[in-house]
Specification:
By secondary structure, this protein is mainly alpha-helical. The chain has helices at residues 20-28, 66-90, 94-126. It starts with 19 loop residues before the first helix and ends in a 5-residue tail after the last helix.
C-alpha cells in the first residue's frame, strides 16, 4: 500500500514557499488558491467545500468577519475622499450626495466583497491557517 503514489487530487498540498502573493491573487480572482483552476464560490460568497479540480478542502479556511471589515475599509477610502472632493469643488445639494454616494457605496461593497473574501481564503491557504 505504501508503494502507491499520492496524487494532488487525493490530499491537500502544503503551499510552496513564497506562495502568499499567488494565493492572494488567485483568491481575488475567486479561484482555488492551490491550483487556480476551479471557482471557490458556489454562489455569491458561499464557499465550495472542496476544489473540483485538485480536491483542496476549501471549507477548512474560515474567512468569517474579516472580508466585511476589509471591504468597509476599502470602500470607505474610496467614497469618503470622493464625497469631500465633490463638496469642496462644487457644493452640490444634499440630494446629489445621496443620489451619488449611497448607490456607489452599495455597488462597491457588493462588487468587492467576493474578491476580498477570496483573497482572505488565499492568504489563509498560503499561511496554512486551517480552522
Amino acid at each position: 500500500m505504501d508503494d502507491l503514489p499520492l496524487t494532488h487530487h487525493s490530499r491537500d498540498l502544503d503551499p510552496p514557499p513564497g506562495s502568499f502573493l499567488t494565493g492572494l491573487l488567485r483568491g481575488i480572482r475567486k479561484r482555488c488558491p492551490q491550483c487556480g483552476e476551479s471557482h471557490i464560490f458556489s454562489r455569491y460568497v458561499t464557499v465550495n467545500p472542496t476544489c473540483r479540480h485538485c480536491g483542496l478542502d476549501i471549507s477548512a479556511y474560515r474567512a468569517d468577519d474579516a472580508p466585511p471589515y476589509f471591504t468597509i475599509f476599502v470602500v470607505g477610502h474610496i467614497v469618503i475622499p470622493g464625497m469631500l472632493l465633490l463638496e469642496q469643488n462644487f457644493h452640490p445639494a444634499s440630494w446629489v450626495h445621496m443620489a451619488t454616494w449611497v448607490p456607489m457605496t452599495l455597488l462597491l461593497t457588493l462588487a468587492l466583497l467576493p474578491p476580498i473574501k477570496g483573497a482572505v481564503i488565499g492568504a489563509q491557504w498560503a499561511l496554512r491557517m486551517k480552522s
